[in-house]
């Protein structure tokens, strides 16, 4: 991905001709950190420069400054770098300053312990779906999730809730056409996805089966922010053959716990 394409993905509307002529230093820092995050593994500086399409000398300058600030650190002896201790401290500060977050983490822990199922906290990042946190199932059929990996929204139950504030035209403009292709090669009809969003809006919850993974059934319930918007979801990821009675029981539990985390009126 070129530097301009990466910047446009992260900061929509900034990859104009004027910006392409001379990027600000802060934009290049964001692009570099985003690329390293997406790679999910240490990289050599030269490889980072090629990945983001930035001058090698500029990339070395940025990396060296981030190393000095402990935002990156060297890994091994071959010149690889990855996120450093300062990043951990930033995350720690966020989780402790945000009074809502400890309640969410406690709910994830309790739901996983009580149900024995995989529980997720989910949201959107740009026009993609991400798992923000997860507690994996302890059962014999272990379902796990990668936190932070961006997934096409139509593949997910949560996506139907998180887009429920949009009208059909807005959804059509928001979702890239290629994101309707499921992992097994099937194309999810756009009208079917729009109908599923409308159903989620009406019901106040969403279910999906065998979309991102043909072995899973997903349940999602919204967590409302202080304005009443659905910005987060609480989810169960179940084996696809989970009996209907069990799914109904878990859905009721999920909706109850998600509602307890709503910030509306609090």
UniProtKB/TrEMBL annotation:
SUPFAM superfamilies: GAF domain-like (SSF55781), Winged helix' DNA-binding domain (SSF46785). Signal peptide: none annotated. Residues 86-266 form the IclR-ED domain. Residues 23-85 form the HTH iclR-type domain. Keywords: DNA-binding, Transcription, Transcription regulation. Gene3D superfamilies: 3.30.450.40, Winged helix-like DNA-binding domain superfamily/Winged helix DNA-binding domain. InterPro entries: GAF-like_dom_sf (IPR029016), HTH_MetabolicPath_Reg (IPR050707), Tscrpt_reg_IclR_C (IPR014757), Tscrpt_reg_IclR_N (IPR005471), WH-like_DNA-bd_sf (IPR036388), WH_DNA-bd_sf (IPR036390). It holds the Pfam family IclR_C. PROSITE patterns: HTH_ICLR (PS51077), ICLR_ED (PS51078). It comes from the Bacteria. PANTHER family: HELIX-TURN-HELIX TRANSCRIPTIONAL REGULATOR, ICLR FAMILY (PTHR30136), HTH-TYPE TRANSCRIPTIONAL REGULATOR RV1719 (PTHR30136:SF35). This is IclR family transcriptional regulator.
């Amino acid at each position: 991905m070129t530097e301009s394409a990466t910047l446009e993905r992260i900061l929509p509307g900034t990859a104009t001709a004027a910006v392409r002529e001379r990027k600000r230093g802060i934009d290049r820092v964001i692009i570099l950190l985003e690329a390293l995050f997406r790679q999910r593994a240490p990289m050599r500086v030269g490889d980072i420069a090629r990945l983001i399409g930035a001058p090698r000398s500029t990339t070395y300058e940025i990396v060296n400054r981030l190393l000095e600030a402990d935002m990156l650190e060297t890994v091994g002896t071959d010149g690889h770098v990855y996120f450093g201790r300062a990043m951990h401290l930033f995350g720690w500060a966020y989780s402790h300053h945000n009074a809502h977050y400890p309640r969410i983490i406690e709910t994830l822990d309790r739901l996983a312990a009580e149900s024995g199922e995989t529980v997720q906290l989910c949201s959107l990042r740009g026009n993609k779906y991400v798992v923000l946190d997860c507690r994996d199932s302890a059962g014999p059929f272990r379902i796990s999730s990668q936190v932070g990996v961006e997934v096409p929204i139509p593949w997910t139950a949560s996506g139907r809730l998180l887009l429920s504030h949009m009208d059909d035209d807005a959804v059509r403009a928001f979702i890239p056409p290629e994101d309707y292709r499921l992992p097994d090669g099937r194309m999810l009809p756009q009208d079917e996805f729009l109908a599923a969003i409308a159903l989620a809006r009406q019901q106040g919850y969403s279910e999906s089966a065998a979309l991102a993974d043909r072995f899973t059934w997903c349940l999602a319930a919204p967590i409302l922010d202080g304005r009443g918007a659905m910005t987060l979801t609480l989810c169960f990821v179940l084996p696809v053959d989970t009996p209907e009675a069990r799914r109904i029981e878990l859905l009721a539990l999920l909706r109850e716990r998600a509602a307890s985390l709503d910030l509306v009126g609090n």
